[in-house]
Design goal:
The chain has 489 residues and is mainly α. 79% of the residues lie in helices and 1% in strands.
Length: 489
C-alpha cells in the first residue's frame, strides 16, 4: 500500500511540475499586455515596437513547438524539458534587465525558445506518467484548465506587479517558479523517449518560420512603410513563396513536419482555423483593452488589470463546463456559443468612447471570458476527432501551434489598425482608433461560430473518418507494441 501511495504522490508531483511550466508560459502570453504603456513611456517605444515585444515571443513559440516535441521524443523528454526551463528562466532575467527595446525583443526570443520546449514536452511527460485512461483524462483536464486560467490572470497579476515593482517585475516573477520546476524535475520526472520518434524535417521548419516572420513583419510595418513599399511587397511575396514551398515539400516526405493529409478532415482543418481566430481575437482584445484603459481612461496598471477580472472569472468558470459539454453533447454547442459570446463582446466595444459606462465594459469582458472559456476544450477535441491514436499527438500539436499563430496575427493586425494614434498626448483619439480593431475581433467571433457549425456535422465527421482510415496503415503501431520506452536515469 505504501508503494502505491508513493507512486501516486510521484505522479502528482510530475503533474504539478508540468502545470507549473504551463502556467508561466501561459501567463507570459498575457501578463505583458498590461505593462505595455509603462514600457512605451520608459523605453520610448512606437506602436510597432510594442507589437514586436509580444509577437517576437509568440512567433518563435509557434515556429518551434512541433520540432521541440519531436526532438524530445528522440533525445529524451526530461532533458529537453530541463533545457527549456533554464532558457525560459534566463530569458526572463535578461528581459527584466533589458536596457532598450531592441534588447527586450531579442531576449523575448530567448524566452520563447525555452517556452517551446515546455508545453509539448510536458504533455508527453504527462501521457507517459499517467497510463490508466481515466487517470490520464483527469490529468490532461487539469493541465488544460491551467492554460486558460494563466492567460486570464495575466492582466491582473501584471497590473499589480507593474504598480508595485515596475514593468520589469512581470518577467522576474517567472524565475522562482522556473527554479522550483527545475528542482522538481530533477527529483521526480523520469527520463523517457519515444520508441519510434519522428524524423526531423529541417526544411519544413525553416519554411514555417520564414513564412510566419515575413508575413507578420509585413503586416506590422506595412502601415508605416507603405503597403506598396518594395520591402513590404517583397516580404508578402516571400511569405507566399514559403507557403508554396511547404505545400510542395511536405507531401514528398515520409514523416513531414506537417502532414497535409490531416487537412482533408474538415473537423481538423476547422479546429486549426478556429484556434487561429480565437487566439487572434484574444490577443487583439487584450492589446486594445490595455492601451484603452491606461491611455484613454487614465487607469493605473492595477486598476486596468482589475477591470479585466470579469473576463478571468468567466474563463475560470466556463473552462470546466466546456469540457463536460464536449464529453456529453460533442463540440458543436460550446464552439458556437463561444463564437457568439466573443462576437457579442466585440459588438459592445465597436463604439468605444472615453466615457463608456462601467456596466457596458463589465458585460463585454464577461462575454469574452465566457467565449474564451468555452472554446479551448472543443478545439482540441475537434482537432483529434477521427484521428488514429498514434497521430492524435501530432494533430493536437498543430492545434497548439495554431493558437500561437493566432496570437501573433491578432496583435499584428489589430495593432496596425491603430496607426500612430499613440503618439498623441493624453491618449486623445485612442478610443475611436480601436473601433476597427473591435470589428476584426467581432469577425473572428462570427467565424468561430460559423466554423463550429460547419465542421461538427455529419458531412464533416465523414471526412474525419475517411482521413483517419487513410492514415491508419502508416500510423497504427503493431498490436501490443509500447508507444514509449522509459529510460530512467
Amino acid at each position: 500500500m505504501s508503494s502505491i501511495g508513493t507512486d501516486q504522490r510521484r505522479k502528482l508531483l510530475v503533474l504539478l511540475t508540468c502545470c507549473m511550466s504551463l502556467f508561466i508560459v501561459g501567463l507570459d502570453n498575457t501578463i505583458l499586455n498590461v505593462a505595455l504603456p509603462s514600457i512605451r513611456s520608459d523605453l520610448d517605444a512606437s506602436v510597432s515596437q510594442l507589437q514586436w515585444t509580444i509577437d517576437a515571443y509568440t512567433l518563435v513559440l509557434a515556429s518551434l513547438l512541433m520540432v521541440a516535441g519531436s526532438t524530445a521524443d528522440r533525445i529524451g523528454r526530461r532533458r529537453v524539458f530541463q533545457t527549456g526551463l533554464v532558457l525560459f528562466a534566463a530569458g526572463s532575467v535578461l528581459c527584466g534587465l533589458a536596457p532598450g527595446l531592441g534588447w527586450l525583443i531579442a531576449f523575448r526570443v530567448v524566452q520563447a525558445v525555452g517556452g517551446s520546449m515546455l508545453n509539448p514536452v510536458a504533455m508527453s511527460i504527462i501521457t507517459n506518467t499517467f497510463t490508466e485512461p481515466r487517470e490520464r483524462a483527469r490529468a490532461i483536464g487539469m493541465w488544460g484548465a491551467v492554460i486558460g486560467i494563466a492567460m486570464a490572470l495575466g492582466p491582473i497579476v501584471g497590473g499589480a506587479l507593474v504598480d508595485s515593482a515596475g514593468w520589469r517585475s512581470v518577467f522576474w516573477i517567472n524565475v522562482p517558479v522556473a527554479l522550483a520546476a527545475m528542482v522538481l524535475t530533477a527529483l521526480y520526472v523520469p527520463e523517457s523517449k519515444a520508441a519510434r520518434p519522428r524524423r526531423a524535417d529541417p526544411v519544413a521548419q525553416v519554411l514555417v518560420f520564414a513564412f510566419l516572420l515575413s508575413l507578420t513583419y509585413a503586416i506590422i510595418e506595412g502601415r508605416e512603410a507603405g503597403w506598396s513599399a518594395p520591402l513590404i511587397v517583397a516580404l508578402f511575396a516571400l511569405a507566399a513563396a514559403c507557403l508554396a514551398g511547404l505545400l510542395y515539400w511536405s507531401p514528398r516526405r515520409a514523416e513531414p513536419l506537417i502532414d497535409l493529409r490531416f487537412f482533408r478532415s474538415a473537423p481538423f482543418a476547422g479546429a486549426t482555423v478556429i484556434a487561429v481566430c480565437t487566439f487572434a481575437s484574444m490577443s487583439g482584445f487584450l492589446f486594445l483593452n490595455t492601451l484603452y484603459l491606461q491611455e484613454a481612461r487614465g487607469y493605473s496598471p492595477t486598476e486596468a488589470g482589475l477591470r479585466t477580472l470579469p473576463m478571468a472569472l468567466m474563463t475560470f468558470v466556463f473552462s470546466p463546463i466546456s469540457g463536460r459539454l464536449v464529453g456529453r453533447v460533442g463540440p458543436r454547442i460550446p464552439l458556437v456559443a463561444a463564437g457568439l459570446a466573443i462576437a457579442a463582446s466585440a459588438a459592445l466595444l465597436v463604439g468605444l468612447a472615453d466615457d463608456t459606462s462601467t456596466v457596458r465594459m463589465v458585460a463585454a469582458y464577461s462575454l469574452f471570458g465566457i467565449g474564451f472559456g468555452l472554446v479551448n476544450a472543443p478545439i482540441t477535441n475537434t482537432a483529434v476527432s477521427g484521428m488514429p491514436r498514434a497521430q492524435a499527438g501530432v494533430a493536437s500539436a498543430i492545434a497548439s501551434t495554431s493558437r500561437q499563430v493566432g496570437q501573433s496575427f491578432g496583435v499584428a493586425v489589430v495593432g496596425t489598425t491603430m496607426g500612430s494614434v499613440l503618439s498623441t498626448p493624453g491618449g486623445a483619439g485612442l478610443a475611436a482608433a480601436t473601433h476597427a480593431g473591435w470589428w476584426i475581433v467581432l469577425g473572428c467571433g462570427v467565424s468561430v461560430a460559423g466554423l463550429g457549425m460547419l465542421t461538427t456535422g455529419r458531412w464533416a465527421l465523414r471526412t474525419a473518418e475517411r482521413t483517419g482510415a487513410k492514415l491508419m496503415p502508416a500510423a497504427a503501431p503493431p498490436a501490443g507494441a509500447p508507444e514509449t520506452t522509459d529510460v530512467r536515469q
